[in-house]
Amino acid sequence: MLFRRRKPLTFKEKLREHLWPRKGFVRSFQYFGKRLVRLAASPHSVAAGFAAGIVVSWTPFIGVHFVMAIIIAYLVGGNVIASALGCLAAGNPITYPFIWALTWEIGHLILSRDSGGQGGNIDLPALWHKGDLSQIWDPVLKPMLIGGIPPAIVTGVIVYALTYYGVKTFKTRRKERLMERARERLALAENASSV
């Protein structure tokens, strides 16, 4: 293989590379942003899809985030790939603990409950193991779901606006560069044919 390492990485080195990349996270974010703005869709479609993925990440239903994002993106005319990228950007193992804590607290504020004593009297792992969602709904899922609505709306609107104008600017500049190159090629072709 042309680009294979001479000395393969050990398991420990691979694990470290996944958790903390050698070149840092800036390069990953830059690649992610370029991947988003280069999608072959309208700025509204990309922004709506990306915002749908971000909004869905505020819900406590982890196993179905991608499905929910695709459905919402379809309903609002968003790009399906952008919705998946939105899910990956906002909902990942690094951000989930913060999302859950924030939605839990906001949910208890909205429902006017005391969050301190509410979660201490249930055995959450045992209830998850039994699969008894009816007992988990009121003390855990309901506050998290209701608490996720305000941040989902705020982040959805902000992300939509930023993504829309970012994609629109990128596509406009790209179109101008392509038109300039086409003019240059046309001028070169005319000069070559006149000689």
Automatic annotation (TrEMBL):
This is DUF2062 domain-containing protein. Pfam families: DUF2062. It comes from the Bacteria. Signal peptide: none annotated. Keywords: Membrane, Transmembrane, Transmembrane helix. Residues 27-175 form the DUF2062 domain. The chain crosses the membrane at residues 36-56, 62-82, 94-111, 144-167.
